[in-house]
Structures are given as structure tokens and as C-alpha cells.
Design brief:
Shape: globular
Structural class: alpha/beta
Radius of gyration: 21 Å
Number of helices: 13
Strand content: 15-25%
CATH superfamily of the largest domain: Enolpyruvate transferase domain
Number of strands: 19
Distance between the termini: 30 Å
Number of domains: 2
CATH class of the largest domain: Alpha Beta
Largest sheet: 4 strands, mixed
CATH architecture of the largest domain: Alpha-beta prism
Helix content: 25-40%
Strand order of the largest sheet: 1-10-12-11
Length: 400
Amino acid sequence: MARCHVQLPASKSLSNRLLMIRAIAGCTTMPQGMGQCDDTSAMIAALGCDSTYINVGGAGTAMRFLTAYFAALPGREVVLDGDERMRQRPIAPLVDVLHNMGASIDYAGTPGFPPLRIAGRKLSGGIQSIDGSVSSQFVSALLMIAPVCGGLTLKVEGGAVSRPYIDMTLQLMARCGVDARWHGTTIVVPTRSYNPAQLSIEGDWSAAAFWFSMQALLPQSAIKLLGLERISLQGDSAIVELMKPLGVETCFGNDMVSLSHNGLPLPARYECDMSATPDLVPALAVTLCLLRVPFTLTGLQSLRVKESDRIEALRQELAKLGYSTEAEGSSLSYAASYVETTQLVALDSHADHRMAMALSLAATRHGTITIKAPQVVAKSYPQWWTHLTAAGFKIEKTEP
């Protein structure tokens, strides 16, 4: 049972978008409540340096946003690189559109992947098309530079994965003076100057999801999460509804939520299309397995190209704990199969922050567990292990 007040980190998704918009507008001051995670630090460092070589490590958001930013910055020449996993994550859909807009971008390694050699120049938006089924960050990157590229009419083809993240971008742009809107499957961005007012940054709903899981797994807990807003720009606030079938009730207060459990029986089966909120899948999948609730989660295609192949990573690590899941294409299923294991196992984070946090939930059912490469949580939630320890959980952490 956990009884805790948790000050959540600032949303890295909002932090990085606001940093990008403010840089485009020429602002040099920092937004209020800026997050301190690795992804945000990578953005801040890249935007504040004049080096010709920039390595963002594993910061996917920074890689995609900065590709568009530097391409649209006349006179700036950079090589934009990342860690080994980043060099395996596709970026061609974004680069192709930027090429069509007049960008000078060359692949400095494997075609279609970072590192990129970028020579910034004035771009022209016009009418463009992009495959929206790979990453919403490609779309967001283009939208944010569009106002200074003569506007943009962007046709999003193949469906928009993680659409709430695109909507977040549009709402934040609107708050900064640029009213861009959907017209069916097309987004129209006008030519306009940003007016990035001092906006505060709300707490991270993606991080909050792991505490919702904790409430579901330990019904007698009393968990209060600080920094969250009822009306949120973040699509991952959907965790409120996703956890209701598992008994988690949410009470909103002033800049916080209180979690409780209604004590109702668990569902016979849980099914959900997660294409809008794929970042919630690790927490939800692990929670359902630990509760032994059969499930099928679909719409997971974007998880194959995250910090790890999260579908395969979940299958492998849950199997170590005795939970047999089936990963097929863009879905993950569990038939409530469980084989008790008495052997102590080390769970691998796969160098993925959300995997590390999701797997740590296993301590609620399996006692003290070991997590390899625990430091990866710094990507989005540096205080996770401190907060988890304060809530009474014992996690053995080992370096890779």
C-alpha cells in the first residue's frame, strides 16, 4: 500500500514544444516551470550552442524538432546526431517533406536515418503531404516552423498516429498567436509571427500514468499527484478513463489529483485501440498482466520505433516474470496465462525510460526486483526512483 504526495515533473512534451516555438520567435528567456529531464536538457543545449556538431543522445523529440528548426534557420550549418538507437530510428518522412520545402539536408550515415548534415536556408511551405503513421513528431516539427516558411498546407496521409500530440502542438501554437487548424485530414498553418507569452508548463500526464497503475495494483493506496490540470493539452490525460475499468477513481483538486479505488470487480477482458496514446501502453500492459486481466491492445505500430521496440521488449520482460503475452504486428495480447517463478530475475529496461518505469511496477506483486540500466528514467522522470523509494518500494538497480 502506497501513501504519498508526488510532485510530478513538468511535461517534457510541452516543454520541448514551447522551447521550439520560443526559439523560432527569437526569445532568449526560459519558460516558467521548465522540465529538468534529459530530453528537455538536450533541446536547451542544442538551441543555446553555436557548435557545428550536435548530439542529442536518445532524445527523439529533440532530433525531430531540431531537424526542422535548423533546416529553416538561414546560414546555420550543423551535423545533427544521436546515440546508436537514434541512428536506427527513421527520419526520412520528415526529411523528404523538408526537401520539398527547399531544405538542404544530407544523410551523413545510413540513408533515411540520423546523423543529418543540415545547411539552414529560407524554406517555402506550400502544399505538402506526409505519412502520419510513423511519428506524430514529424508532423509537429513541420507545423511549428510553418508560420515562418510562408505558411503550410499539410496533408496527413495514412492516419495520424498519436494525434493528441499533434493537437497539443496546434493548441500551444494557438496560445502563442498562430491559429492553425485541421480541415479533414489536412492542417492549414498561416503565415504569422509567434507571440510566445510566459506560459506555465503543467505536470506530465505520461509520468502520472505509472501512479495510476500503482493505485490499480494496490487498491488501499492513497496517492496524490501534484501539478496536473483537469483541462490539459496532453493527450495522455486519457489515463483517467483508461484506468476506470481497473477501479481507479480520480478526484481533481487545485493543481492536483487524488486517486482512490472503487473496489469493483476487475473486467473479464480489456480491449483498447491505443493508437492515440501509445506512450501509455507500457504502464497499462504491465498493470493488466500483474492483475491477470486478459487483454488485447491494438494500434501499437509506432512502438516498434521508440527508444526500444516496446512491443517486443514488453513480451520479453513480462515472460521473465511468468506472464505469457503474444506480440503480433501492431498488437499485444494476454490470455491470463501465468507460470509462477521463484527464480530471481533481472529485468532489462532496454535503454527505455518508459520500460524501466513500467517494469518497476512488478515490485507490487513480485517483491524486490532488479532493473538493468535504471538511469534511463532521467529521459523524462529523473526523480522516479526517489519517489518510488519514498512510497515504500525496494528496487535493486544495476548498471548495464
